[in-house]
UniProtKB/TrEMBL annotation:
InterPro entries documented for this protein: Class-I_Pyr_Nuc-Dis_Oxidored, FAD/NAD-bd_sf, FAD/NAD-binding_dom, FAD/NAD-linked_Rdtase_dimer_sf, Lipoamide_DH, Pyr_nuc-diS_OxRdtase, Pyr_nucl-diS_OxRdtase_dimer, Pyr_OxRdtase_I_AS
Recorded superkingdom: Bacteria
Name the record gives this protein: Dihydrolipoyl dehydrogenase
Natural source organism: Rhodobacter lacus
Family: Belongs to the class-I pyridine nucleotide-disulfide oxidoreductase family.
Enzyme class: oxidoreductase
Cofactor note: Binds 1 FAD per subunit.
Note: The active site is a redox-active disulfide bond.
Length: 464
């Protein structure tokens, strides 16, 4: 029997993969998707979406404890962890099911199974004991990534958790250690700390949220500590001694090694690309530290083979993967596609307070040789923030002093993950300070702080 032939085969149905498939189908391509686990990939099933559902429950719980501030009463406030987890899983299931509907709507063939590339233009799909080969001139790798496991700190699902274990927590940690203060680590630290866990965060670098602007990191740390978290920077977890019901962590800093006891550890020390077992090396695909090396158009150097999303390297963000999927599908369909500009991709962390940023930090802008103008505006100066009871936060903007170009924007506070898109659009359109100063922001809104931060960079702030 002849192998089924397609114009484009996408391996992996996470955000980048399923978006690439949909866009390809929209452009008239005959498309197939191969997925080994579940439609929607890590993001919809085990990442972005279910974590936000958990964090929403924690946010509501936090607000219930503040009821008196708002003239309200809420007695015997508590939570049911199993119900919180069940809601999160239901949200993920709903969205994953929606991807299946989109596949059918766009007449995309879905093959559930393990994919390998035995030779150029061929994908072998193993499902159980059967193997089926399908062919296409163009193949898109969108196999994503998984949690990095460090020797001696491996997750076991009992005392030491990965993000997957944390998402379906069967018990509430009493004393929690979170290793790593990137987005994943801080989000889980924020969730469990809000629900009452005695939470310690260990970061090997000199500050939490190390990819963010230093001023924003410092502000966020101050809020985390205020909420009861213990933050240990420039500290390494050297060893975990596990015994029934407890873990003894060996923590090393400049002063030496100390030990501390916890009942739960969450390891959030980065990710590795899912590149194994695909047959990439035999095809001549270059792999660097578990990620496929690609050019600005996500081409691997092997004719007709592309790689998008987490497998193609930083930034490891679902929205970056989705746009790469669109770009690659349009390239394959013969359209004029534009490469993704990393400097216009926002990063969002959904802890409390939220953190969001786009473009260069103040330090990176100076390192790049720019003379900069920097503006800041605090949440305490904004009427909507005070009315919401969310007066802790800051908006910071960085401009090129010579041209007025918006180089970067950095925020910490309530709903900043929604506000950052205004600056993302500004970066994409190569906006200057003049454009932003002349823009009329609605009142009363949190977004007015975006305007005030720009004004402050040029000595024109009105409300501080």
């Amino acid at each position: 029997m002849a192998a089924k032939s397609f114009d484009m085969i996408v391996i992996g149905a996470g955000p980048g993969g399923y978006v690439a498939a949909i866009r390809g189908a929209q452009l008239g391509l005959k498309v197939a998707v191969v997925e080994r686990e579940h439609l929607g990939g890590i993001c919809l099933n085990w990442g972005c979406i279910p974590t936000k559902a958990l964090l929403r429950s924690a946010e509501v719980f936090h607000l219930m404890h503040r009821a008196k501030e708002f003239g309200l009463s809420a007695e015997k406030v508590g939570f049911d962890l199993a119900a919180v987890v069940a809601r999160s899983r239901a949200v993920a299931k709903q969205l994953s099911g929606g991807i299946g509907h989109l596949m059918k709507k766009n007449k995309i063939a879905v093959f559930m199974g393990e994919a390998t590339l035995p030779r150029q233009g061929v994908v072998a799909v193993k499902s159980g004991d059967t193997v089926e080969e399908i062919t296409a001139k163009n193949i898109v790798l969108a196999t994503g990534a998984r949690a990095r496991q460090l020797p001696g700190l491996e997750a076991d699902g009992d005392l030491v958790w990965s993000y997957k274990h944390a998402l379906v927590a069967k018990r509430m940690p009493k004393k929690l250690l979170v290793i790593g203060s990137g987005a994943i680590g801080i989000e889980f630290a924020s969730f469990f700390n809000t629900l009452g866990a005695d939470t310690t965060v260990v970061e090997v670098l000199d500050r939490v949220l190390p990819v963010e602007d230093a001023e924003i990191s410092a502000f966020a740390k101050k809020q985390f500590v205020k909420q009861g978290m213990k933050i240990l920077e420039k500290t390494t977890v050297k060893q975990l001694d596990r015994s029934p019901g407890k873990v003894v962590a060996h923590l090393e800093d400049a002063k030496g090694v100390t030990t501390a006891e916890f009942d739960t550890v969450i390891s959030a020390v980065g990710i590795v690309g899912n590149v194994e077992g695909l047959g990439l090396e035999a095809l001549g695909v270059k792999i660097d530290r578990t990620h496929v090396v690609v050019d600005e158009f996500c081409r691997t150097g092997v004719a007709g083979l592309y790689a998008i999303g987490d497998i193609a390297g930083a930034p490891w963000l679902a929205h970056k993967a989705s746009h790469e999927g669109v770009m690659v599908a349009e390239l394959i369909a013969g359209q004029h596609a534009h490469p993704i500009k990393p400097g216009t991709i926002a990063g969002c962390t959904y802890c409390h307070p939220q953190v969001a940023s786009v473009g260069l930090t103040e330090a990176k802008a100076k390192e790049a040789g720019y003379a900069v103008k920097v503006g800041r505006f605090p949440f305490i100066g904004n009427g909507k923030a005070i009315a919401l009871g969310e007066a802790e936060g800051m908006v910071k903007t960085v401009f090129d002093a010579k041209t007025g170009e918006l180089l970067g924007a950095h925020m910490v506070g309530a709903e900043v993950t929604e506000m950052i898109q205004g600056y993302v659009i500004g970066r994409t359109l190569e906006t200057t300070e003049e454009d932003l100063i002349q823009t009329v922001f609605p009142h009363p809104t949190l977004s007015e702080m975006m305007h005030e931060s720009v004004l402050d960079a040029y000595g024109r702030a009105l409300h501080i």
